[in-house]
Amino acid sequence: MRVFFVFFFLGSLKLTAQYVTFTAELGDSTTLVLGDSKRISKLTFYVSDVQLETMNGEFVEVAAYHLIDFKDSNSLKIETDNEREIKSIHFKLGIDSTTNVSGAYGGVLDPTKGMYWSWQSGYINFKIEGVVQREKYILHLGGYSYPFKSVQQIILPVKTQSDEFRITLPVDEIIEKLIPIDNTIMSPSLKAVEMSKSVSSFFYLK
Amino acid sequence: MKKNVIALLVIIFFLLSFRQVSKEVFEFPDLFPTPTYDFKNNPLDSNKIELGRLLFYDAILSKDNSISCSTCHSRFNAFAHNDHNLSHGINDKIGTRNAPVLFNLAWQPTFMWDGAVNHLDMQALAPISSATEMGEDIVNVVDKLQNDPFYRNKFYTAYNDSIVTGEKVLKVLSQFQLTLVSANSIYDRVKSGEGEFNDQELKGYKLFQENCNTCHQEPLFSTYELAQNFIAIDSNLNDYGRGVISKSSDDSLLFKIPSLRNLEYSFPYMHDGRYFELNTVLNHYTSKETKLKFKKEGLKKVNLSEDDKVDLIAFLLTLNDKEFVFNEKHRFPRELLIKWKE
């Protein structure tokens, strides 16, 4: 059996270099125990309100909105001028409700980025698409208003100070735990909220 | 030295005033409430309004250059689709809903019949992307405009930058549509003390206030909330309105309340355009079946005699705004014809 790691390093934080880097290590296919192919063709998601909490409880803003696209290595890096030791990293998976109801934005929030629904308003917070066991899966998680509000706050405690902190999303967890529940989600729903919670719980600091 | 300073001030003043020429103030009558649209994020500017008008009338927004916004939202019909119950799109595809009128959009908190769009800026994405309307993608729209020297120029004039973005396209479309203010009907003139209703219209006005004003509230003639219209579901369309978006049975068959302004120009009526005459709409609301449904929902029944209906329609026709539908500022831009010939 081939062993394959499907890791997505959301971020690596370089304190001394004064920027946050995001690196992706992601294979396009792997082997399941059953021997079927699994593939990821798209993995894009928003992180917003990215902040570093310093040891004395101050918050340093790193990015207001950022779009991670594993096919675009430039998107995997956020610059910061912080040089202090940090206690934890705070960020949201997705876009807050206020931004969702305030009209058109440019930059990473421009609707041409493919992360906005058209037939109803709202950003798609998290997109993963691919094939597993010869079946297509497509998860577009989003929704900004109750009961479908899907943006998630994530706080990752920093255990050891380092030049590089990597926020990691183990994609295998999504494929093994979430795709079997539902492999097609393309609109706001309670299931999308549950999945958003699950995805946010998978992130960890490597 | 002093002369130089004065000359400099004159030049600065001249430059400033030059820039201010394009700034526009959003004008609306005192009778109207404060707009819900936040102009701070998209301040009106005559160059942007003009660019928005060009895009509104240009089929470049659609996949095969066949459908523009104005195809289904024509000026003479208060920007609705005259005589068509359901809107048409590319390859003669027919949609599931009646193209709504476009005016007084700055006061509307949501858009589309199901209220699925929460901001005017984002509304255009829906028809652009819909397979039965323009069948296009905002990414392609931006590419097409970016590769078109005419539009590159226009974007430069509007934004001092020729880079086309999705944000800019959506915002200029909003700008033009925000200028579609309809507030010059007989009703408006009566309210501002410049005119009077005749006896029949006055009777109709009272009937309106007693029976219709809860949902079709003055002076916009809609609260722009979502409500049931109690028409039977069309089994071909199976349109459950808001319920489809919210996935809640409580919202089943809720549709956005349309304004009663400009009814003469904007038939047919209702979200699926099933009624071609105002009388038919009134007959629906006063029918036995509807009354029973109103009762069940705890709503005040609409009671109108045949004479009442005639009077009520006489009043409703005072909401027609001829100046609006013939407003030259909103017409097809001739510049497009020249562009198309080239």
Question: What's the arrangement of secondary structure elements?
Answer:
The complex is a heterodimer of chains A (206) and B (342).
Chain A (H helix, E strand, L loop, with lengths): L6 E8 L4 E3 L8 E2 L5 E18 L4 E11 L7 E3 L6 E8 L3 H4 L23 E9 L2 E8 L9 E6 L7 E6 H8 L5 E2 L4 H13 L1 E2 L1
Parallel strand pairs in A: 9-12
Antiparallel strand pairs in A: 1-2, 1-11, 2-6, 3-4, 4-5, 4-7, 4-8, 7-10, 8-9, 11-13
Chain B lengths: L1 H19 L25 H12 L11 H4 L47 H4 L1 H5 L8 H9 L2 H11 L6 H13 L7 H6 L7 H13 L14 E3 L13 H5 L7 E3 L21 H9 L1 H9 L9 H11 L5 H4 L8 H8 L1
Antiparallel strand pairs in B: 1-2
Helix pairs in contact in B: 2-7, 2-8, 10-14
| N to C succession of SSEs of chain A | EEEEEEEHEEEEHEHE
The percentage helix of chain A is 10-25%
Helix content of chain B: 40-55%
Morphology call of chain B: globular
Work out the helix count of chain A.
3
- Helix- and strand-based class of chain B? mainly alpha
Q: Largest beta sheet of chain A, briefly?
A: 8 strands, mixed
Number of helices in the DSSP assignment of chain B: 16
H/E element order of chain B: HHHHHHHHHHEHEHHHHH
Quantity of strands of chain A, as a count: 13
Determine the mean pLDDT of chain A: 81
Q: How far is the first residue's CA from the last residue's CA of chain A?
A: 26 Å
